[in-house]
Automatic annotation (TrEMBL):
Residues passing through the membrane, by range: none
SUPFAM superfamilies reported in the protein's UniProt record: P-loop containing nucleoside triphosphate hydrolases (SSF52540)
Residue runs in coiled coils: 207-291
Sorted UniProt keywords: Coiled coil
Domain of life: Eukaryota
Alphabetical list of Pfam families matching this protein: Microtub_bd
Region (Disordered): 14-58, 165-187
Entry keyword Coiled coil: yes
Protein known as: Kinesin motor domain-containing protein
Domain Kinesin motor: from-to ranges: 298-450
Taxonomic placement: Eukaryota, Fungi, Dikarya, Ascomycota, Pezizomycotina
GO molecular function, one term: ATP binding
Basic and acidic residues compositional bias, start-end: 15-36, 165-176
Length: 450
């Protein structure tokens, strides 16, 4: 927007130069707007012919009839505009409801998606836990299998030892039975018999211990087999549940993806339709505004009254409504003058520009407009038009930015017509320019590109 700042600086320099000619200081704010409270002189409305002269009623009859027809046409356009405005309001209300419903559906869908995501996260956590338990069971199963193998080997070893002990015992008894018994005293026989009894008791005790160990190992093996069977069955059930949950999650994800795609496409279609409808409504509103502007006539006269200054006593002008004033001449006779708009002394530049802005919108639509400030010296023309120029530039650039973004260009001219002479104020040299003799309606002056 450097061009925008350049144009403001150039206009500010022109105003400062013109103010220097008239020895009137001009105060500019940081945006380049004229904020000097220049007194606005009383309008020369008294030079105008008062309306409704009794001597010219016959001459004014056709004009009155034409104005009545124009007023009826304007009223008809206003009625149509009101009907279209009501229709547009209702359409906007319907569109707003549709947008609210879509937003509610989108929020509900987002809540559902969030809930399903939480469910998926919970199921995945449970699945991870089940996998961990399955791994632990597998490890325990392998440990039990190893313990079973180790205990089986121990039982086999004990059985072999028991068998070997029984074989040795039998061989020992057979050897004793087969060996000749030398005659010996009775004490030796008793001693031998006690030794045999002790050896037999020790062997029986050892056999009993070995049998107890074997029984205990067999019980442990049976318990391990039962536990292994239970763990295997539980692992199988967990694997089946895991596969089933994974299938449900996959199906749920697929359904959720399809639903999200459909919802997204529906929202995109509704957004495009709403944007198209809003664009059509904007075009209709612009068209109705232009019709309203045209219905008000191609020429409008506005009057701005400045407050009395200095030693001026009673205000010689009175506002009658919003479109007419009553002026007292030097003889005290009241004369009434009508305008399209009358701005009271307390109306500031923003109020004046409020009525001017709609005409600027028409200019942006391609209409040629002219704004002429007329009044005696010191009536406040520069004060008013400087503010109008700054605010008009602001509105033009704002509208262009909304329509074209940051890629656009504007061409402007600033000329001065003074005592039948024309000057280009964008040109540094004070060189008089020739007035064109053709009727093209355009001034062939130097363009200032922004």
């Amino acid at each position: 927007m450097s061009g925008k700042k350049t144009l403001r600086e150039q206009f500010a320099a022109i105003r400062a130069r013109e103010a220097g000619k008239s020895d009137k200081p001009t105060t500019l704010n940081e945006e380049g707007k004229d904020i000097t409270e220049v007194p606005v002189a009383q309008p020369e409305a008294a030079k105008l012919n008062p309306h409704g002269s009794a001597g010219k009623q016959s001459d004014l009859a056709p004009e009155i009839e034409q104005l009545s027809f124009k007023l009826e046409t304007q009223n008809e356009i206003l009625r149509n505009l009101g009907e279209n405005t009501d229709k547009q309001t209702e359409d906007n209300r319907v569109l707003s409801r549709a947008v609210d419903e879509n937003i509610a559906k989108a929020k509900e869908h987002q809540a559902k998606v969030h809930e399903q995501n939480l469910l998926i996260a919970r199921l995945e956590s449970e699945l991870a836990t089940v996998k961990a338990k399955a791994g632990a069971l597998q490890t325990s199963n392998e440990t039990c299998s190893l313990d079973k193998i180790s205990k089986d080997e121990m039982i086999s070893k004990l059985f072999r030892e028991l068998t070997e002990s029984n074989r040795q015992l039998r061989e020992s008894e057979e050897a004793r039975a087969a060996a000749p018994q030398p005659p010996s005293p009775s004490i030796d026989a008793a001693h031998i018999q006690s030794i045999r009894i002790k050896d037999s008791a020790a062997d029986k005790e050892e056999i009993t211990i070995l049998n107890s160990k074997v029984s205990a190992l067999q019980e442990e093996i049976h318990a391990a087999k039962v536990q292994l069977k239970e763990l295997t069955l539980k692992a199988r059930h967990m694997a089946e549940n895991h596969a089933k949950e994974m299938a449900e999650l996959t199906e749920m994800k697929d359904d959720l993806g399809i639903e999200m795609a459909c919802t997204k496409q529906s929202l995109i279609s509704q957004k495009e339709a709403a944007e198209k409808q809003l664009e059509e409504m904007g075009i209709l509103v612009k068209k109705l505004k232009l019709e309203l502007i045209e219905s008000k006539g191609n020429f409008r006269s506005w009057l701005r009254i400045r407050p009395p200054q200095g030693t001026l006593g009673k205000q010689p002008i009175s506002i009658m409504g919003g479109d007419s004033v009553e002026v007292l001449d030097r003889h005290g006779t009241a004369k009434t003058f009508k305008f399209d708009r009358v701005f009271a002394p307390e109306s500031n530049n923003a109020v004046v520009f409020g009525d001017l802005s709609e005409i600027l919108e028409a200019a942006l639509q391609g209409y040629n407009i002219t704004i002429l400030s007329y009044g005696q010296t010191g009536s406040g023309k520069i004060y008013t038009m400087s503010a109008m120029l700054d605010m008009a530039m602001e509105q033009i650039f704002t509208q262009l930015a909304k329509s074209y973004g940051s890629d656009y260009s504007v061409q402007g001219r600033c000329i001065e017509v003074y005592e039948q002479k024309v000057y280009d104020l964008f040109y540094s040299a004070r060189e008089q320019l020739k007035v064109p003799t053709d009727c093209s309606g355009m001034w062939p002056f130097r363009d200032q590109l922004l």
